Amino acid sequence: MKSLMRIPCTECGGTLRRTAIAQEFENEGVKVRLSGVRAWVCSKCHEIYFEPGGADRMAEAVRCLFAVALAEKQHKGTVIADLS
Length: 84
Ligand SMILES: [Zn+2]
Description:
Helix content: 10-25%
Number of helices: 1
Mean pLDDT: 86
Bound molecules: zinc ion
CATH class: Alpha Beta
CATH architecture: Roll
Shape: elongated
Strand content: 35-45%
Number of domains: 1
Order of helices and strands: EEEHE
Largest sheet: 4 strands, mixed
Number of strands: 4
Structural class: alpha+beta
């Protein structure tokens, strides 16, 4: 069983489940995808919550991915990082 966070969803009061999510970002035609990111997701409305500092770490990872994508000039592809 997955562990449950004690606080309910602030949007709908639903239960938060810890799970791995994937998100895609686009910047000036360059796409990067980050998957396997651990976060809390509401079982009802699917609102995503990060642990303290989690959103900052994710933003940093995305910034690095864009740097790699731009350096490699992979304008037609997607740079993917799987953290799982
Ligand atoms: Zn919710």
